[in-house]
Design goal:
Beta-lactamase, alpha+beta, 10 helices, two-stranded antiparallel sheet, 5-stranded antiparallel β-sheet, globular, 295 residues, disordered N terminus
């Protein structure tokens, strides 16, 4: 895995400083210059992200998560576990359930006009602004890729906020997630709680029934215009999205939840669900678990 990460780092550096980039920078068109500047900034962020991943990969530490679970989905076997039935706040992992409910109950081609109520949650994106007419599909992408909270909130208004939350709770019962509760669709409430066992059930359901959700979480090429018409990129906030072993999933953070993760990885050519709750370093914890499974 180290070799692949270094290769990605080299490739990004090559793109950032290639003659093509230099030539484009001299273009007279202001829009193209601005877009190039933004692309370079994004590449710089990617380099920093890869460097952090390399450091995490190299540091073999004890697992910091208060609760964790690794399940091999090929034969539904638990391979590592700790405190798997202890509920913790899950933060933006909530958006996985929101996505399931949206895909199963909303026409993703349908559009909605954003209102002040929809844009109230923290987690603002300049590409989601008052009066914008936007599709459910684009809101889903914003929610899952950049973990945009107002995108997840806006999704609830397609069916009505209370009904959407009821549908989330209904899905909890259908999946027998006995220790899971939701009070919002985005995860800002620390009252949104679940267990590693329950979240493994949710990930398994998504893997079998909604692989499109996992595909979205791997994407890092989603753009929408701001009010001036300038295209802005939604940066993927999942630290693992560019790794070939990453199948898909979600991360989250709240002070009350610390760092959380519910994601799928190919380990020894088999799909493994890894859940981390109340972690101090989810990158290090994830690589420690993966390396333990490989060895």
């Amino acid at each position: 895995m180290q070799y692949k990460i270094f290769f990605l780092l080299f490739f990004i550096l090559l793109l950032a400083f290639s003659p093509f980039a230099s030539k484009t920078a001299k273009a007279s068109d202001q829009t193209e210059r601005m877009k190039l500047i933004q692309q370079i900034q994004i590449l710089q962020q990617e380099i920093q992200r890869l460097q952090a991943l390399i450091l995490s990969l190299q540091s073999q530490q004890e697992i910091t998560a208060a609760s964790y679970l690794a399940v091999n989905l090929s034969h539904n076997s638990v391979v590592l576990e700790k405190n798997t039935n202890q509920p913790y706040p899950i933060a933006s992992i909530t958006k996985l359930m929101s996505a399931v409910v949206a895909f199963e109950n909303i026409d993703t081609g349908q559009t909605i006009t954003l209102t002040e109520k929809m844009l109230e949650p923290l987690g603002y994106s300049p590409s989601l602004f008052l009066g914008l007419n936007v599709s459910a599909k684009n809101l889903l992408q914003a929610s899952l890729i950049q973990s945009t909270n107002d995108a997840a909130e806006s999704l609830t208004y397609f069916s009505g906020k209370e009904k959407f939350l009821d549908l989330m709770k209904q899905k909890v019962k259908e999946l027998d997630m006995a220790n899971t509760v939701f009070f919002d669709a985005h995860g800002l409430s620390p009252a949104n709680r679940s267990t590693a066992t329950d979240l493994a059930k949710l990930l398994t359901y998504i893997y079998k029934n909604h692989p499109e959700i996992l595909s979205i979480t791997k994407d890092n090429n989603f753009w929408l215009p701001d009010p001036t018409g300038r295209l802005l990129k939604f940066q993927n906030v999942n630290n693992f999205y560019h790794l070939p072993e990453f199948i898909g999933g979600k991360t989250g953070y709240l002070p009350e939840a610390k760092q959380t993760l519910a994601s799928l990885f190919n380990v020894n050519k088999e799909p493994v669900a890894i859940i981390l709750l109340y972690s101090s370093n989810r990158q290090s914890d994830t690589f420690t678990i993966i390396n333990q499974l490989k060895n």
